[in-house]
Design a protein that fits this description.
The complex is a heterodimer of chains A (189) and B (136). Chain A is mainly α and 189 residues long. Chain A contains nine helices and no strands. The chains are: A mainly alpha (189), B mainly alpha (136).
Chain lengths: 189, 136
Amino acid sequence: MDLGGLPDDELAARFRDGDAAAFEALLGRYSGPIYSFALRFLGNSADADDAAQQTFIQAFEFLPASRGDGSLRPWLFQVARNKCIDLIRKRRTLPISSIERQEPESAQIDPEDMAPLPAELYERAELQQMLQDAIASLPLRSREVVLMRYVGDLTFGEIGRSLGMPENTAKTLFQRAKVQLRVQLRKRL
Amino acid sequence: MLSDDRDDIDILFARMERVPAPPGFGARVLAAVESRTRARRRLGITALAASLLVATVLSFFIGQELQTTDALEILAGALDDVALLSTEPSDVALAFIELAPWPLASLVGVCLAVAAGASRLALTSFGGLGPHGAGH
């Protein structure tokens, strides 16, 4: 039976009932997005593979007892985010100061930063690398929010629940991050 | 899920490539899960067997202890003379409590608790995957 069309909750319920194919369907559905998230987060394919694999192992071990409330997708990204941070701390691919750097209380937004980017940017061949570099330049918290939004397609409510913050805080972080991304991308033009 | 009022940054990041998982990724996850499941099951079975063995040995020593301290006779007497148990239940209980080998009994209790946890680990570690999915 093809389980690919079933919603997440249905697959999770089937997995809890012992249906192995349901876990495989979830794995097939989310392996790409979770790997992509980890790759953008860590900027390293080997680490991303490791983090994504650990994410699904944790899903296998904890999904049966803990899920079923319609929040599987944000939960998976939350686990992936935690695995990425574990890897960063373990391998020291980022200095601790960068990992723990906090957002400024009130970021100054220059009105010029809000101006649209030139159309030429869209034509740049190295767009992907630029985006990756821009993401990597963000403080950790902002990076999490941006990736959950752009790669995970999570709502701000889901991002807030995943990161343990109010929805409005997630929105604010996202808006600030966009300003920073805009500045970073402008520098690269 | 992005809303319609997207700005240029949103549009730009919508062009960001969604990188697919590497070839064989799913198979590696399933293999890792299977390996961990087997390891947990082995651990559960080993702990179950060991705790039951220790509990059995301790129970033997408890029996010996009960015999040497005459606690067994008190128990047998109470069972033979039900009237004594009904008229002086507290005396019988106190006498038994004083003579019972509580440290050994506590250890047996611990072993049984470990056995319960280990059996759960051995049985539930298959989770939802089982031999079908893990066999890939």
